[in-house]
């Protein structure tokens, strides 16, 4: 087996070695705290997007047909 010091940074990246831990985030829902300002509560707007009434953050995911 090859030691880690002989591997390129690309090889280390592809093998998942030495990467920082990514935080586990829960999906955004109506009533969740705003991820941008942390003070407003998300609610659905007329386009079925989650929106913060305090800072105006809009989650681009989701939406749907009515």
Explained architecture:
This protein has a two-stranded antiparallel ribbon. With 66 residues, it is largely without helices or strands. It has one helix at 9-15; strands at 43-44, 50-51. The chain has 1 helix and 2 strands. It is elongated and about 55 Å long.
Number of helices: 1
Strand order of the largest sheet: 1-2
Shape: elongated
- Briefly note the structural class of the backbone: little secondary structure
β-strand percent reads 5-15%
The end-to-end span amounts to 57 Å
Tell me about the largest β-sheet.
2 strands, antiparallel
The number of E-state strands comes to 2
What's the helical proportion of residues?
Answer: 10-25%
Give Rg in angstroms: 20 Å
**Poorly predicted runs:** none
Order of helices and strands: HEE
Any descriptors?
1 helix, 6% strand, 2 strands, two-stranded antiparallel sheet, 66 residues, little secondary structure
SSE topology sketch:
Layout: H1 9-15, E1 43-44, E2 50-51
Antiparallel strand pairs: 1-2
Question: Summed up, what is this model?
Answer:
This protein has 66 residues and is low in regular secondary structure. Helix content is 11%, strand content 6%.
């Amino acid at each position: 087996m090859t030691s880690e010091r002989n591997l390129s940074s690309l090889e280390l990246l592809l093998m998942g070695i030495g990467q920082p831990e990514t935080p586990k985030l829960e999906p955004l829902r109506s009533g969740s705290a705003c991820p941008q300002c942390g003070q407003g509560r998300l609610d659905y707007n007329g386009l079925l997007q989650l929106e913060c009434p305090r800072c105006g953050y809009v989650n681009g995911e989701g939406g749907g047909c009515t």
